[in-house]
Amino acid sequence: MAATRTPLMAGNWKMNLNHQEAVVLVQKLAWTLSDKKHDFAKVEVVVVPPFTDLRSVQTLVDGDRLSIRYGAQDVSVHESGAYTGEISAGMLAKLGCSYVVVGHSERREHHDESDETVSAKAHRALDAGMTPIVCVGEGLEIRQAGEQVAHCVAQVAGSLAGFSAEQVAGLVVAYEPVWAIGTGEVATPDDAQEVCAAVRAHVRETHGDAAADGVRVLYGGSVKAANVAGIMAETDVDGCLVGGASLQADEFGGICRFYDMPVL
Ligand SMILES: O=C[C@H](O)COP(=O)(O)O
Cα-flanking dihedrals φ and ψ of residue 153, to 5°? Predict the structure, then answer.
């Protein structure tokens, strides 16, 4: 983690928690962090609930003037129209979303999303004033073949197609090795650093120093309060995209306060 970039902890709830449960969790998280006098300027805290929870989260965040930010798990490539079941970037922006996750491995796997689709979604998010969190990552076979860097860099190249250097500087890329998602199989800090550094080096090559120094690269995959400090000690890891552990306020609160945690 470099001092020039604000660390970002984003909790991706996936398809968990209804809108009432969402309010309870965000309230608990806010209390937990406020108890510890969390400085949100020091570590940015984001929750990424299902679409159906967003309006309730917005009402709570606005009403209680919380510093927690929130985002959506996906967005349509289309602006509006006859696309049943789709949610547009404009709708999400209107709900006060700051971030949109695009190209999560579960979307790439279960919905066949290509880098081209991911790029189109990232453009929609950015055009609507939100920050895309662009996910990349390799499956177990690619990891075993030692091709994780080439694979992830290619995904980044495809997913960031058409973005200017200035735009890339404000983006977030999340490296999530698929074999470490929800499995308890956390990548080592060295594994995380290897790919995060390669992503940044690629951005430096294609978009220049300002973009490479600005883009935040997160790690995701079985992150917990107990292992977050070691991961965050790596130079090119600027935060975490957290799944399961973000469903518990205490655990996610601990992750957000990684600097209080022991390095294992
Ligand atoms: O978006 C989050 C990631 O898929 C990681 O999920 P996990 O923390 O449950 O392994």
Answer: -65, -40
Token output for 100: 């949109």
* Spatial distance between the Cα atoms of 92 and 80, rounded to a whole number of angstroms: 12
Q: ipTM value of the model? A: 0.98
For residue 219, how far is its CA from the centre of ligand 1 (angstroms)? Answer: 9
Binding residues for substrate: 12-14, 182, 222, 243-244
| CB-based burial label for 226 (10 Å; 0-12, 13-18, 19+) | middle
Kindly tell me the burial class for residue 59, based on how many C-beta atoms sit within 10 Å of its own C-beta (0-12, 13-18, 19 or more): middle
Ligand 1 mutation target, pool 100, 241, 248, most atoms within 8 A of CB: 241
Decide whether any atom of ligand 1 lies within 6 Å of the 244 Cβ.
yes
Q: Tell me the fold of 8-260.
A: TIM Barrel (3.20.20)
- Check pocket membership of 177 for ligand 1, CB cut-off 6 A: no
The per-type count for the chain, helices as H runs and strands as E runs, is: 12, 8
Lookup: tokens for 180: 């470490």
- Tens digit of pLDDT at every position of the chain (264 positions): 777 899 999 999 999 999 999 999 999 999 999 999 999 999 999 999 999 999 999 999 999 999 999 999 999 999 999 999 999 999 999 999 999 999 999 999 999 999 999 999 999 999 999 999 999 999 999 999 999 999 999 999 999 989 999 999 999 999 999 988 888 877 899 999 999 999 999 999 999 999 999 999 999 999 999 999 999 999 999 999 999 999 999 999 999 999 988 887
Question: Locate tokens 């890329």: which residue?
Answer: 173
Q: Is the CB of 9 under 6 A from ligand 1?
A: no
Q: Which atom of ligand 1 is nearest to the CA of 242?
A: 8
